[in-house]
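Regression test case RT-17, inverse folding.

Input:
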């Protein structure tokens, strides 16, 4: 079964680690690739990541879009970033 083979394959990491968190415990990434999802992901846009260990094992991230919904995307489409407390407060207040 193809899904099983995918689950057993070790994903290449782009540095994403479930332990890297901002001051409020949130994780943020910036989109660097949107080949398969041009309508859903914007290059250079900052997205909040929700913890999902099952998705991480498959090389995916659970990303919250501007509608407030979360979806799975390949982790190689993003780079983890650390926000300053002021920027994180601004992003949270804008949502």
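Golden output:
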């Amino acid at each position: 079964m193809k899904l099983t083979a995918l689950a057993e394959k070790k994903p290449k990491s782009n540095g994403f680690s479930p332990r890297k968190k901002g001051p409020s415990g949130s994780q943020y990434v910036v989109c660097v690739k949107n080949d398969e999802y041009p309508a859903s992901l914007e290059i250079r846009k900052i997205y909040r990541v929700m913890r999902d260990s099952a998705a991480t094992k498959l090389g995916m991230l659970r990303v919250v879009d501007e509608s407030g919904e979360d979806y799975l995307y390949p982790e190689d489409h993003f780079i983890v970033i650390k926000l300053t407390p002021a920027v994180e407060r601004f992003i949270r207040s804008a949502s």
